[in-house]
Target: Large ribosomal subunit protein bL21
Amino acid sequence: MYAIVDIAGKQFKVTKDQFVYAPKMDGEEGASVEFDKVLLFGDDKAVEVGAPLVKGAKVAGKILGHVKGDKVVVFKKKRRKGYKKRNGHRQEFTKVLIENISK
Model:
């Protein structure tokens, strides 16, 4: 069984007992979260596509922690002008364990 769920504006294909690194969400470690924006729900028998959402489908998860992603280096340069600018950024994510997918 799997589902495509919208978490904070991004779409993830999730299955049970899977880890997802979603954009940072409010909540403490160990807190349970529920996502009701399910766009597609599939099991062994059939696939149900929502218009735009699948009615009654929910995905339950548990927040395992808040982490930072890899550093992205932003480098700007203008040739022959002596202009160089270097900047870095680390995006914050929330690690979520998908516990249950129900319809």
